[in-house]
Design brief:
single chain; 289 residues; mainly alpha; 2 domains; flat
């Protein structure tokens, strides 16, 4: 138990020392957190400001450790996730904090169970990898939302173009009437780029590079090719809309066919033993009696 107390005191001492170092430069990070809150219109609590203070300070300390290639790769992932303002050094700060918390949790748990403390390194590794798992999960969720909203937006875009609107006005109509979500946000960014003077092809390429979704990339490639060859935009959009609807139906049928296979394991593991206990339990009990 003395080792448990030692690690607990060590953890709280390290946390107190860390907060003391952060308190030496508070104004810069508090001003930054408040400015970000005013820009986003979000009311930040004291806990969020304190969290931003800790992560911001750690991120600044990690800045010499971030290479240019890692920064570029992580910036692209943050854009794909929908949070382009996040910094690579702040992400490393999240990794360090998660590794510290999971490592201390592992030390305390293994000490209580009287297990070798060397296994606590696995907790450190798990905590360090947890932000990467979270980032990948956020990207998958955003891709899923975009994939679900894409057929509806293409249908609305097709109707707008066939009604006589040009591409820019049709995109504006989709942004105005479309379903709220990440796809609407990305189309709004693309519309802003077109209004600022970028060409249609360049804005579409930027949209594809930001989202990095295969369905959207294929759609953008077909639009760019049609624009270069002078093909009617309404006809291309109608073909894309029909193809997208067929792919959605095929994807639904695939998931429906996979459902029985996925249900087999919980069925065998949970339901069958219960049924056997109810059917044969009384018989076995009577035979034993």
């Amino acid at each position: 138990m003395s080792t448990y107390v030692f690690y607990t005191v060590l953890a709280f001492s390290g946390l107190a020392a860390f907060l003391l170092v952060l308190s030496l430069y508070p104004e810069k990070f508090l001003a930054k957190a408040r400015a970000e809150a005013e820009l986003s219109g979000e009311k930040m609590s004291a806990g969020k400001i304190a969290g931003g203070l800790i992560v911001g300070r750690l991120g600044d300390l990690n800045r010499p450790l971030v290479s240019k290639s890692f920064r570029t790769r992580m910036t692209q992932r943050f854009v794909t996730m929908g949070n382009p303002g996040m910094r690579a050094e702040d992400f490393i700060a999240y990794q360090e904090l998660c590794a510290l918390m999971f490592g201390l949790l592992g030390l305390m748990s293994l000490n209580l169970l009287e297990k070798p403390l060397i296994w606590s390194s696995l907790f450190f590794v798990l905590g360090f990898l947890l932000p990467f798992i979270w980032l990948r999960d956020q990207i998958k969720k955003r891709h899923h939302k975009i994939a679900r909203a894409l057929p509806y937006s293409i249908d609305l875009l097709t109707l707008s173009v066939e009604a006589g609107l040009d591409f820019q006005a049709a995109i504006a109509k989709v942004v105005e009437k479309g379903q709220p979500g990440p796809l609407r946000e990305e189309l709004s960014i693309m519309l802003g780029e077109i209004r600022l003077g970028k060409t249609r092809e360049q804005s579409l390429r930027n949209l594809s590079d930001r989202v990095r979704l295969p369905q959207l990339t294929s759609f953008v490639s077909n639009l760019v090719q049609a624009d270069r060859m002078g093909t009617s935009l309404g006809k291309v959009l109608r073909i894309q809309s029909t193809q997208m609807r067929i792919e959605r139906t095929q994807r639904a049928e695939k998931l429906a066919n996979e459902a029985p296979v996925k249900m087999l394991f919980p069925l065998v593991l949970c339901i069958f033993p219960t049924v056997f206990m109810i059917l044969f339990g009384p018989i076995i009990y009577r035979l034993m009696g």
